[in-house]
Amino acid sequence: MDGTPLVSIVMPAYGVEAYIGKAIACIQAQTIVYWELIVVDDASPDRSAAIAEAAAAEDPRITVLHHGQNQGLSGARNTGMAHACGTYLWFCDPDDTYDSDLLGCAVSALKRTEAQVAVFGVREEYYNAKGAFQYENVVQPEPGACLSAERVHGRMLQLERETCYGYAWNKVYDRAFLASTGATFENVKLIEDITFNVAVFDHVDRMVVLDRAPYRYARRIDDNLTNKFLPDYFELHERRIQMLFDQQQAWGTLDDDARAILGSLYARYVLSALERNFDPRAQMRSADRAKWCERVFSSSLYNELIPYAQAEDSRALAEALKPLQTKDVKRTLQLARVIHIARDKFLPLFTKIKSGR
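and the corresponding structure tokens:
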């Protein structure tokens, strides 16, 4: 390929030999042909790198970079970003798939609006432990162009509520603009995408949201990080909410509506974390869980947000908010135990209800 590619695509690779071939094929099927794919082999122990190398041998638009030792998702993305030279930049995961017009639609919208970031929806595809497809949940944010900082700021919490703010892979960035922000991915589990995007969107004043959901996010019960046990699960998500709170405050948009959105999100994380505290791996007794609740209930962020939390159309959240807002430790623990039993015994149904289906 001669000249500068229109889009640089960064694809980290670790332990994905069962999926990466299909992901690369989705890139090769894009209606835009002037792209470069940078696969970053993060010292993968399986055949992921070999599959990517075989594709690169037949397609000069594909480059495979190798880490001598594992650096994690953030390190792999940073390596790929440092080698990118396209006009636009897209991060994609190697165990997902993408519609053939994803890049074409994103680039067209970016050119038409001169936006710095294009955001698109996602099709969450749920698979059971045996790899069989179960159901799909389409997340489609309201489309349109936000061509001022004020309008961008006004959309971000709604995008967060729709799970579309945090992801890096549901956005195509103007690469020169992205470089000007100095943003890189932090080496932290679970919230590396939102820490990156909070830093980026502090500088965004032109954004376009597409009217489609061309990214197919595979949510596998066994592989999905959110279904694994992380001892610092709550601390990570509390940090997420704190970053969003601080950003809204800095933007001057932290009104009661913003607190209501952040409060409802925070309430979900509190319950989710407390449910995990019933996992034997947490090694917590009843007294430990009660002290955990009391500590969280007394935190400044909790008291800034939970009183404003609203359930909107979620009956489950409405019931959950009652003990949280009254700081009823006993009822909160009872609710968390019920959630834990449901998650443990009926995980497929639990994920379906949680996704809004």
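(Above: one complete record from the training split.) The longest helix spans residues 256-276.
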